[in-house]
Backbone:
Protein backbone atom coordinates (compact mmCIF):
# COMPACT_ATOMS: atom_id res chain seq x y z
CA UNK A 1 0.00 0.00 0.00
CA UNK A 2 3.01 2.26 0.31
CA UNK A 3 3.27 2.33 -3.50
CA UNK A 4 0.73 5.16 -3.70
CA UNK A 5 2.45 8.48 -4.31
CA UNK A 6 0.90 11.09 -2.08
CA UNK A 7 1.56 14.66 -1.07
CA UNK A 8 3.47 15.16 2.16
CA UNK A 9 0.58 17.01 3.79
CA UNK A 10 -1.71 13.97 3.27
CA UNK A 11 0.64 11.28 4.55
CA UNK A 12 -0.98 11.17 7.99
CA UNK A 13 -4.36 10.73 6.29
CA UNK A 14 -3.00 7.51 4.75
CA UNK A 15 -0.96 6.29 7.73
CA UNK A 16 -3.67 6.76 10.35
CA UNK A 17 -7.42 6.31 10.25
CA UNK A 18 -10.30 7.99 12.03
CA UNK A 19 -13.36 5.75 11.88
CA UNK A 20 -16.21 7.56 10.17
CA UNK A 21 -19.13 5.22 10.85
CA UNK A 22 -21.70 4.97 13.62
CA UNK A 23 -22.25 3.66 16.24
CA UNK A 24 -19.09 3.97 18.35
CA UNK A 25 -19.70 0.48 19.72
CA UNK A 26 -22.13 -2.02 18.28
CA UNK A 27 -23.43 -5.50 18.94
CA UNK A 28 -22.07 -6.51 15.54
CA UNK A 29 -18.56 -5.38 16.45
CA UNK A 30 -18.77 -7.33 19.68
CA UNK A 31 -19.86 -10.46 17.81
CA UNK A 32 -16.99 -10.39 15.29
CA UNK A 33 -13.55 -11.42 16.51
CA UNK A 34 -11.31 -8.51 15.52
CA UNK A 35 -8.17 -10.62 15.89
CA UNK A 36 -9.57 -13.09 13.37
CA UNK A 37 -10.21 -10.25 10.91
CA UNK A 38 -6.66 -8.99 11.41
CA UNK A 39 -5.23 -12.49 10.90
CA UNK A 40 -7.10 -12.95 7.62
CA UNK A 41 -6.11 -9.47 6.45
CA UNK A 42 -2.46 -10.38 7.05
CA UNK A 43 -2.95 -13.61 5.08
CA UNK A 44 -4.09 -11.76 1.96
CA UNK A 45 -1.37 -9.12 2.09
CA UNK A 46 -3.21 -6.25 3.81
CA UNK A 47 -0.78 -5.70 6.69
CA UNK A 48 -0.74 -3.21 9.56
CA UNK A 49 -4.11 -1.59 8.94
CA UNK A 50 -5.30 0.71 11.73
CA UNK A 51 -8.00 -0.84 13.91
CA UNK A 52 -10.55 1.97 13.21
CA UNK A 53 -10.64 1.07 9.49
CA UNK A 54 -11.59 -2.47 10.52
CA UNK A 55 -14.37 -1.04 12.69
CA UNK A 56 -15.68 0.85 9.67
CA UNK A 57 -15.62 -2.36 7.62
CA UNK A 58 -17.58 -4.20 10.31
CA UNK A 59 -20.18 -1.45 10.79
CA UNK A 60 -20.87 -1.26 7.08
CA UNK A 61 -21.92 -4.94 6.99
CA UNK A 62 -25.27 -3.84 8.40
CA UNK A 63 -25.57 -0.73 6.24
CA UNK A 64 -24.00 1.30 9.03
CA UNK A 65 -24.43 5.06 8.90
CA UNK A 66 -21.59 7.56 8.70
CA UNK A 67 -20.94 10.21 11.31
CA UNK A 68 -21.74 13.90 10.96
CA UNK A 69 -19.17 16.47 9.88
CA UNK A 70 -18.82 17.82 13.44
CA UNK A 71 -18.36 14.32 14.88
CA UNK A 72 -15.77 13.43 12.24
CA UNK A 73 -13.81 16.62 13.03
CA UNK A 74 -13.87 15.73 16.76
CA UNK A 75 -12.62 12.18 16.07
CA UNK A 76 -9.91 13.40 13.71
CA UNK A 77 -8.66 15.83 16.34
CA UNK A 78 -8.45 13.05 18.95
CA UNK A 79 -6.75 10.63 16.52
CA UNK A 80 -4.02 13.09 15.58
CA UNK A 81 -3.46 14.63 19.04
CA UNK A 82 -2.86 11.23 20.68
CA UNK A 83 0.16 10.82 18.38
CA UNK A 84 1.66 14.29 19.09
CA UNK A 85 4.45 15.17 21.48
CA UNK A 86 3.35 17.41 24.41
CA UNK A 87 4.88 20.53 22.84
CA UNK A 88 3.10 19.79 19.56
CA UNK A 89 -0.22 19.40 21.41
CA UNK A 90 0.36 22.80 23.05
CA UNK A 91 0.96 24.41 19.64
CA UNK A 92 -2.06 22.56 18.23
CA UNK A 93 -4.29 24.40 20.71
CA UNK A 94 -3.52 27.56 18.72
CA UNK A 95 -2.77 26.27 15.18
CA UNK A 96 -5.36 23.41 14.88
CA UNK A 97 -2.95 21.07 13.06
CA UNK A 98 -4.97 18.07 14.25
CA UNK A 99 -8.05 18.93 12.15
CA UNK A 100 -6.26 19.65 8.89
CA UNK A 101 -7.50 16.33 7.40
CA UNK A 102 -11.05 16.57 8.75
CA UNK A 103 -12.45 17.69 5.37
CA UNK A 104 -10.80 14.69 3.66
CA UNK A 105 -12.40 12.35 6.18
CA UNK A 106 -15.77 13.95 5.57
CA UNK A 107 -15.32 13.43 1.82
CA UNK A 108 -14.48 9.80 2.57
CA UNK A 109 -17.60 9.45 4.72
CA UNK A 110 -19.79 10.96 1.98
CA UNK A 111 -18.20 8.62 -0.58
CA UNK A 112 -18.81 5.55 1.59
CA UNK A 113 -22.42 6.60 2.05
CA UNK A 114 -22.88 6.19 -1.71
CA UNK A 115 -21.06 2.84 -2.01
CA UNK A 116 -23.46 -0.12 -2.17
CA UNK A 117 -21.82 -2.39 0.40
CA UNK A 118 -24.88 -4.64 0.39
CA UNK A 119 -23.63 -5.98 -2.96
CA UNK A 120 -20.63 -7.53 -1.22
CA UNK A 121 -21.46 -11.15 -0.53
CA UNK A 122 -19.47 -13.41 1.75
CA UNK A 123 -19.72 -16.79 3.45
CA UNK A 124 -19.31 -15.20 6.90
CA UNK A 125 -19.47 -11.73 8.40
CA UNK A 126 -15.68 -11.78 8.78
CA UNK A 127 -15.29 -12.35 5.03
CA UNK A 128 -17.64 -9.45 4.29
CA UNK A 129 -15.79 -7.22 6.76
CA UNK A 130 -12.47 -7.96 5.03
CA UNK A 131 -13.94 -7.07 1.64
CA UNK A 132 -15.43 -3.88 3.11
CA UNK A 133 -12.02 -2.89 4.49
CA UNK A 134 -10.46 -3.37 1.04
CA UNK A 135 -13.09 -1.10 -0.51
CA UNK A 136 -12.62 1.56 2.18
CA UNK A 137 -8.82 1.49 1.78
CA UNK A 138 -9.19 1.81 -1.99
CA UNK A 139 -11.64 4.70 -1.69
CA UNK A 140 -9.30 6.47 0.75
CA UNK A 141 -6.32 6.25 -1.60
CA UNK A 142 -8.44 7.26 -4.57
CA UNK A 143 -9.25 10.54 -2.85
CA UNK A 144 -5.56 11.15 -2.13
CA UNK A 145 -4.53 10.73 -5.79
CA UNK A 146 -7.16 13.25 -6.85
CA UNK A 147 -10.03 11.15 -8.21
CA UNK A 148 -13.36 12.94 -7.58
CA UNK A 149 -15.45 11.19 -4.86
CA UNK A 150 -18.48 10.77 -7.14
CA UNK A 151 -16.30 9.00 -9.73
CA UNK A 152 -14.86 6.67 -7.10
CA UNK A 153 -18.27 5.62 -5.76
CA UNK A 154 -19.68 5.30 -9.30
CA UNK A 155 -16.90 2.98 -10.50
CA UNK A 156 -16.77 0.91 -7.31
CA UNK A 157 -20.55 0.42 -7.46
CA UNK A 158 -20.27 -0.60 -11.12
CA UNK A 159 -17.60 -3.17 -10.29
CA UNK A 160 -19.53 -4.53 -7.31
CA UNK A 161 -22.66 -4.86 -9.44
CA UNK A 162 -20.72 -6.80 -12.09
CA UNK A 163 -19.17 -9.30 -9.70
CA UNK A 164 -21.73 -9.40 -6.87
CA UNK A 165 -23.63 -12.33 -8.40
CA UNK A 166 -20.58 -14.34 -9.46
CA UNK A 167 -20.56 -17.89 -8.18
CA UNK A 168 -17.45 -19.77 -7.10
CA UNK A 169 -17.11 -21.73 -10.36
CA UNK A 170 -17.29 -18.53 -12.43
CA UNK A 171 -14.61 -16.89 -10.29
CA UNK A 172 -12.29 -19.90 -10.68
CA UNK A 173 -12.57 -19.70 -14.46
CA UNK A 174 -12.05 -15.92 -14.53
CA UNK A 175 -9.01 -16.23 -12.25
CA UNK A 176 -7.23 -18.47 -14.75
CA UNK A 177 -7.60 -16.00 -17.64
CA UNK A 178 -4.29 -14.54 -18.86
CA UNK A 179 -3.66 -10.83 -18.34
CA UNK A 180 -5.18 -8.50 -20.91
CA UNK A 181 -1.77 -7.71 -22.41
CA UNK A 182 -1.48 -11.42 -23.32
CA UNK A 183 -4.85 -11.54 -25.06
CA UNK A 184 -4.91 -8.04 -26.50
CA UNK A 185 -1.81 -5.81 -26.49
CA UNK A 186 -2.38 -2.14 -25.74
CA UNK A 187 -1.55 -1.09 -29.29
CA UNK A 188 -4.33 -3.36 -30.58
CA UNK A 189 -7.13 -1.90 -28.43
CA UNK A 190 -9.99 -0.66 -30.60
CA UNK A 191 -11.73 2.19 -28.70
CA UNK A 192 -14.34 2.64 -31.43
CA UNK A 193 -15.56 -0.97 -31.22
CA UNK A 194 -15.51 -0.88 -27.42
CA UNK A 195 -17.49 2.36 -27.45
CA UNK A 196 -20.08 0.85 -29.81
CA UNK A 197 -20.43 -2.18 -27.52
CA UNK A 198 -21.17 0.07 -24.58
CA UNK A 199 -23.28 2.65 -26.37
CA UNK A 200 -20.99 5.59 -25.50
CA UNK A 201 -18.60 7.88 -27.37
CA UNK A 202 -14.91 7.02 -27.62
CA UNK A 203 -14.05 10.10 -25.55
CA UNK A 204 -16.32 9.02 -22.70
CA UNK A 205 -14.87 5.53 -22.87
CA UNK A 206 -11.24 6.66 -22.64
CA UNK A 207 -12.01 8.98 -19.72
CA UNK A 208 -13.80 6.16 -17.89
CA UNK A 209 -11.06 3.62 -18.56
CA UNK A 210 -8.42 6.02 -17.26
CA UNK A 211 -10.31 6.48 -13.97
CA UNK A 212 -11.05 2.78 -13.68
CA UNK A 213 -7.41 1.89 -14.27
CA UNK A 214 -6.23 4.17 -11.46
CA UNK A 215 -8.80 2.75 -9.03
CA UNK A 216 -7.88 -0.82 -10.08
CA UNK A 217 -4.18 -0.20 -9.34
CA UNK A 218 -5.16 0.97 -5.84
CA UNK A 219 -7.24 -2.18 -5.35
CA UNK A 220 -4.17 -4.25 -6.29
CA UNK A 221 -2.05 -2.36 -3.77
CA UNK A 222 -4.54 -3.27 -1.05
CA UNK A 223 -3.93 -6.98 -1.74
CA UNK A 224 -0.16 -6.62 -1.84
CA UNK A 225 -0.10 -6.16 -5.61
CA UNK A 226 -0.15 -9.92 -6.19
CA UNK A 227 -2.58 -12.04 -8.26
CA UNK A 228 -4.06 -14.82 -6.15
CA UNK A 229 -3.95 -18.31 -7.62
CA UNK A 230 -6.68 -20.89 -7.18
CA UNK A 231 -4.52 -23.21 -5.06
CA UNK A 232 -4.58 -20.56 -2.30
CA UNK A 233 -8.31 -19.99 -2.37
CA UNK A 234 -8.80 -21.46 1.12
CA UNK A 235 -7.09 -18.41 2.67
CA UNK A 236 -8.72 -15.92 0.35
CA UNK A 237 -12.43 -15.56 1.12
CA UNK A 238 -14.84 -15.64 -1.81
CA UNK A 239 -15.77 -12.02 -1.11
CA UNK A 240 -12.12 -10.98 -1.55
CA UNK A 241 -11.71 -13.11 -4.67
CA UNK A 242 -14.72 -11.29 -6.12
CA UNK A 243 -12.95 -8.00 -5.41
CA UNK A 244 -9.85 -9.29 -7.20
CA UNK A 245 -12.02 -10.00 -10.24
CA UNK A 246 -13.64 -6.57 -9.81
CA UNK A 247 -10.23 -4.89 -9.86
CA UNK A 248 -9.36 -6.78 -13.06
CA UNK A 249 -12.63 -5.71 -14.64
CA UNK A 250 -11.88 -2.09 -13.81
CA UNK A 251 -8.40 -2.35 -15.32
CA UNK A 252 -9.25 -4.63 -18.26
CA UNK A 253 -12.32 -3.31 -20.10
CA UNK A 254 -12.40 -6.33 -22.42
CA UNK A 255 -13.22 -8.53 -19.43
CA UNK A 256 -16.49 -6.61 -19.22
CA UNK A 257 -17.33 -7.83 -22.74
CA UNK A 258 -16.66 -11.43 -21.69
CA UNK A 259 -19.04 -11.14 -18.74
CA UNK A 260 -21.71 -9.46 -20.84
CA UNK A 261 -21.69 -12.10 -23.59
CA UNK A 262 -21.71 -14.97 -21.10
CA UNK A 263 -24.77 -13.51 -19.39
CA UNK A 264 -26.53 -12.82 -22.69
CA UNK A 265 -26.07 -16.48 -23.63
CA UNK A 266 -27.56 -17.57 -20.29
CA UNK A 267 -30.75 -15.64 -20.98
CA UNK A 268 -31.75 -18.03 -23.78
CA UNK A 269 -33.67 -21.10 -22.63
CA UNK A 270 -32.52 -23.05 -25.69
CA UNK A 271 -28.89 -22.60 -24.60
CA UNK A 272 -29.45 -23.89 -21.06
CA UNK A 273 -27.96 -27.33 -20.31
CA UNK A 274 -30.71 -29.94 -20.42
CA UNK A 275 -29.16 -32.42 -18.01
CA UNK A 276 -31.57 -34.65 -16.11
CA UNK A 277 -30.70 -37.09 -13.35
CA UNK A 278 -32.88 -39.90 -14.63
CA UNK A 279 -33.79 -43.18 -12.98
CA UNK A 280 -34.05 -46.01 -15.52
CA UNK A 281 -35.44 -49.57 -15.16
CA UNK A 282 -32.69 -52.14 -14.59
CA UNK A 283 -32.80 -55.76 -13.45
CA UNK A 284 -29.65 -55.16 -11.41
CA UNK A 285 -30.86 -51.84 -9.97
CA UNK A 286 -30.14 -50.97 -6.37
CA UNK A 287 -33.42 -49.08 -5.78
CA UNK A 288 -37.12 -49.93 -6.11
CA UNK A 289 -40.07 -47.79 -7.13
CA UNK A 290 -43.80 -48.35 -7.58
CA UNK A 291 -45.57 -47.52 -10.86
CA UNK A 292 -48.81 -48.37 -12.67
CA UNK A 293 -48.72 -51.70 -14.46
CA UNK A 294 -48.36 -51.57 -18.23
CA UNK A 295 -48.98 -55.19 -19.30
CA UNK A 296 -50.40 -58.43 -17.89
CA UNK A 297 -46.89 -59.91 -17.90
CA UNK A 298 -46.22 -57.84 -14.78
CA UNK A 299 -48.74 -59.73 -12.58
CA UNK A 300 -45.99 -61.38 -10.47
CA UNK A 301 -44.71 -57.90 -9.50
CA UNK A 302 -48.02 -56.58 -8.16
CA UNK A 303 -48.08 -55.36 -4.59
CA UNK A 304 -49.38 -57.87 -1.95
CA UNK A 305 -52.37 -55.60 -1.23
CA UNK A 306 -53.66 -56.30 -4.78
CA UNK A 307 -54.07 -59.98 -4.02
CA UNK A 308 -56.00 -59.14 -0.88
CA UNK A 309 -58.56 -57.36 -3.09
CA UNK A 310 -59.02 -60.61 -5.05
CA UNK A 311 -60.00 -62.39 -1.86
CA UNK A 312 -62.37 -59.61 -0.78
CA UNK A 313 -64.05 -59.05 -4.18
CA UNK A 314 -63.00 -61.04 -7.22
CA UNK A 315 -65.30 -58.99 -9.48
CA UNK A 316 -63.65 -55.71 -8.45
CA UNK A 317 -60.24 -57.36 -8.78
CA UNK A 318 -60.98 -58.36 -12.39
CA UNK A 319 -62.16 -54.82 -13.15
CA UNK A 320 -58.91 -53.33 -11.74
CA UNK A 321 -56.90 -55.89 -13.66
CA UNK A 322 -58.69 -55.18 -16.95
CA UNK A 323 -58.06 -51.44 -16.56
CA UNK A 324 -54.41 -52.03 -15.47
CA UNK A 325 -54.88 -49.88 -12.39
CA UNK A 326 -52.71 -51.93 -10.05
CA UNK A 327 -49.26 -50.79 -8.88
CA UNK A 328 -46.22 -52.94 -9.60
CA UNK A 329 -42.71 -52.94 -8.17
CA UNK A 330 -39.76 -52.13 -10.42
CA UNK A 331 -35.99 -52.13 -9.86
CA UNK A 332 -34.22 -48.99 -11.07
CA UNK A 333 -30.76 -47.38 -11.13
CA UNK A 334 -29.50 -43.88 -11.75
CA UNK A 335 -28.46 -43.00 -15.29
CA UNK A 336 -25.01 -41.38 -15.48
CA UNK A 337 -25.44 -40.00 -18.99
CA UNK A 338 -24.49 -36.34 -19.45
CA UNK A 339 -25.26 -33.89 -22.21
CA UNK A 340 -22.67 -33.49 -24.97
CA UNK A 341 -21.60 -30.05 -26.19
CA UNK A 342 -19.10 -29.58 -28.98
CA UNK A 343 -17.72 -26.10 -29.72
CA UNK A 344 -15.98 -25.07 -32.93
CA UNK A 345 -14.00 -21.90 -32.17
CA UNK A 346 -12.66 -19.56 -34.85
CA UNK A 347 -8.93 -18.83 -34.57
CA UNK A 348 -8.49 -16.88 -37.80
CA UNK A 349 -6.41 -13.71 -37.69
CA UNK A 350 -9.48 -11.49 -37.91
CA UNK A 351 -10.41 -12.67 -34.38
CA UNK A 352 -7.63 -10.41 -33.08
CA UNK A 353 -9.77 -7.37 -33.84
CA UNK A 354 -11.94 -5.59 -31.26
CA UNK A 355 -12.85 -7.75 -28.29
CA UNK A 356 -13.55 -10.89 -30.32
CA UNK A 357 -11.16 -13.14 -28.39
CA UNK A 358 -12.89 -12.28 -25.11
CA UNK A 359 -16.32 -12.87 -26.62
CA UNK A 360 -15.19 -16.27 -27.87
CA UNK A 361 -13.86 -17.12 -24.41
CA UNK A 362 -17.21 -16.04 -22.92
CA UNK A 363 -19.04 -18.83 -24.76
CA UNK A 364 -16.35 -21.40 -23.98
CA UNK A 365 -16.34 -20.56 -20.26
CA UNK A 366 -20.13 -20.53 -20.20
CA UNK A 367 -20.16 -24.18 -21.32
CA UNK A 368 -17.32 -25.10 -18.96
CA UNK A 369 -19.57 -24.21 -16.05
CA UNK A 370 -21.93 -27.03 -17.10
CA UNK A 371 -18.95 -29.41 -17.06
CA UNK A 372 -17.98 -28.19 -13.60
CA UNK A 373 -21.50 -28.89 -12.34
CA UNK A 374 -21.19 -32.42 -13.78
CA UNK A 375 -24.08 -31.79 -16.16
CA UNK A 376 -22.19 -32.08 -19.44
CA UNK A 377 -19.19 -33.26 -21.38
CA UNK A 378 -17.53 -30.63 -23.56
CA UNK A 379 -15.41 -31.16 -26.62
CA UNK A 380 -13.96 -28.26 -28.55
CA UNK A 381 -11.65 -27.53 -31.46
CA UNK A 382 -10.26 -24.39 -33.03
CA UNK A 383 -10.63 -23.90 -36.75
CA UNK A 384 -9.58 -21.60 -39.59
CA UNK A 385 -9.09 -23.07 -43.08
CA UNK A 386 -8.80 -26.44 -41.32
CA UNK A 387 -10.07 -27.98 -38.09
CA UNK A 388 -7.42 -28.47 -35.43
CA UNK A 389 -7.00 -31.08 -32.69
CA UNK A 390 -9.90 -32.01 -30.46
CA UNK A 391 -9.86 -31.22 -26.74
CA UNK A 392 -12.28 -33.27 -24.64
CA UNK A 393 -13.17 -31.96 -21.19
CA UNK A 394 -14.73 -34.11 -18.48
CA UNK A 395 -13.38 -32.00 -15.60
CA UNK A 396 -12.91 -28.22 -15.54
CA UNK A 397 -9.43 -28.63 -14.04
CA UNK A 398 -8.36 -30.24 -17.31
CA UNK A 399 -8.96 -27.05 -19.27
CA UNK A 400 -7.69 -24.37 -16.87
CA UNK A 401 -4.15 -24.81 -18.09
CA UNK A 402 -5.38 -24.67 -21.68
CA UNK A 403 -7.06 -21.30 -20.97
CA UNK A 404 -3.91 -19.99 -19.26
CA UNK A 405 -1.90 -20.84 -22.38
CA UNK A 406 -4.11 -18.81 -24.72
CA UNK A 407 -2.55 -15.64 -26.04
CA UNK A 408 -2.96 -13.08 -28.77
CA UNK A 409 -0.45 -14.79 -31.07
CA UNK A 410 -2.48 -18.04 -31.02
CA UNK A 411 -5.11 -16.42 -33.25
CA UNK A 412 -3.07 -16.32 -36.44
CA UNK A 413 -5.00 -18.79 -38.61
CA UNK A 414 -5.87 -18.54 -42.29
CA UNK A 415 -9.24 -17.78 -43.83
CA UNK A 416 -12.35 -19.06 -42.04
CA UNK A 417 -14.01 -22.18 -43.51
CA UNK A 418 -17.30 -22.39 -41.62
CA UNK A 419 -18.75 -25.14 -43.83
CA UNK A 420 -15.79 -27.40 -43.04
CA UNK A 421 -16.13 -26.61 -39.34
CA UNK A 422 -19.84 -27.51 -39.38
CA UNK A 423 -19.34 -30.82 -41.16
CA UNK A 424 -16.32 -31.80 -39.09
CA UNK A 425 -18.18 -30.83 -35.89
CA UNK A 426 -21.09 -33.11 -36.83
CA UNK A 427 -18.67 -35.93 -37.62
CA UNK A 428 -16.86 -35.58 -34.30
CA UNK A 429 -20.12 -35.42 -32.36
CA UNK A 430 -21.33 -38.66 -33.97
CA UNK A 431 -18.08 -40.33 -32.93
CA UNK A 432 -18.18 -39.01 -29.37
CA UNK A 433 -21.80 -40.03 -28.79
CA UNK A 434 -20.73 -43.56 -29.69
CA UNK A 435 -17.56 -43.54 -27.58
CA UNK A 436 -18.70 -41.83 -24.38
CA UNK A 437 -21.78 -42.02 -22.20
CA UNK A 438 -23.49 -38.81 -23.35
CA UNK A 439 -26.70 -37.73 -25.07
CA UNK A 440 -28.60 -34.75 -26.49
CA UNK A 441 -25.66 -33.48 -28.58
CA UNK A 442 -25.40 -29.78 -29.39
CA UNK A 443 -22.93 -28.07 -31.72
CA UNK A 444 -21.71 -24.53 -31.00
CA UNK A 445 -20.05 -22.29 -33.59
CA UNK A 446 -18.27 -19.09 -32.50
CA UNK A 447 -16.92 -17.08 -35.43
CA UNK A 448 -16.63 -13.66 -37.02
CA UNK A 449 -16.97 -15.12 -40.53
CA UNK A 450 -19.58 -13.84 -42.99
CA UNK A 451 -19.05 -16.51 -45.66
CA UNK A 452 -21.95 -18.27 -47.39
CA UNK A 453 -23.21 -21.56 -45.94
CA UNK A 454 -24.01 -24.63 -48.05
CA UNK A 455 -24.59 -27.08 -45.17
CA UNK A 456 -28.19 -28.37 -45.15
CA UNK A 457 -30.37 -28.89 -42.08
CA UNK A 458 -30.69 -32.60 -42.88
CA UNK A 459 -26.90 -32.99 -42.45
CA UNK A 460 -27.27 -32.06 -38.78
CA UNK A 461 -30.23 -34.44 -38.16
CA UNK A 462 -30.79 -34.62 -34.42
CA UNK A 463 -28.05 -32.14 -33.50
CA UNK A 464 -29.02 -28.68 -32.23
CA UNK A 465 -26.81 -25.91 -33.63
CA UNK A 466 -26.03 -22.73 -31.66
CA UNK A 467 -24.37 -19.85 -33.50
CA UNK A 468 -22.55 -16.83 -32.02
CA UNK A 469 -21.20 -14.37 -34.59
CA UNK A 470 -18.98 -11.75 -32.95
CA UNK A 471 -18.99 -8.18 -34.26
CA UNK A 472 -20.17 -9.35 -37.72
CA UNK A 473 -23.30 -10.76 -39.41
CA UNK A 474 -24.02 -14.00 -41.27
CA UNK A 475 -27.68 -14.49 -42.19
CA UNK A 476 -27.19 -17.96 -43.74
CA UNK A 477 -25.60 -19.32 -40.58
CA UNK A 478 -28.31 -17.73 -38.46
CA UNK A 479 -31.09 -19.38 -40.49
CA UNK A 480 -29.41 -22.78 -40.20
CA UNK A 481 -29.21 -22.53 -36.40
CA UNK A 482 -32.81 -21.37 -36.05
CA UNK A 483 -33.97 -24.28 -38.23
CA UNK A 484 -32.43 -26.73 -35.74
CA UNK A 485 -34.02 -25.01 -32.72
CA UNK A 486 -30.79 -23.47 -31.49
CA UNK A 487 -29.75 -19.99 -30.34
CA UNK A 488 -28.57 -17.68 -33.14
CA UNK A 489 -26.94 -14.33 -32.24
CA UNK A 490 -24.91 -12.01 -34.42
CA UNK A 491 -23.21 -8.66 -34.01
CA UNK A 492 -22.16 -9.58 -30.45
Residues:
Amino acid sequence: MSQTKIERRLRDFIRFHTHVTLPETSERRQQINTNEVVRKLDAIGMHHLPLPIIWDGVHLIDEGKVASKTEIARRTRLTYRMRMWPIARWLDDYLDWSVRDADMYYQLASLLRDVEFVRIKGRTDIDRAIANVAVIATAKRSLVVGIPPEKVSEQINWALAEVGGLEADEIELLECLPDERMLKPTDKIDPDQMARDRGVTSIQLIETIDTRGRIASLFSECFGGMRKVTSEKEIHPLSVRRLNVASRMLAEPSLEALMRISRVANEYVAFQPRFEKKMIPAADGDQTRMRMMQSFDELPRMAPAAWAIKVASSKYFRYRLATKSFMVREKIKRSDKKQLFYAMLDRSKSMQQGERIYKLLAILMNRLRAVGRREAVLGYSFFDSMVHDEILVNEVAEVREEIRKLNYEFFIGDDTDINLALREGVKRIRQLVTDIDAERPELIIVTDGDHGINVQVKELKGIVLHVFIVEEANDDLMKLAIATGGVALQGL
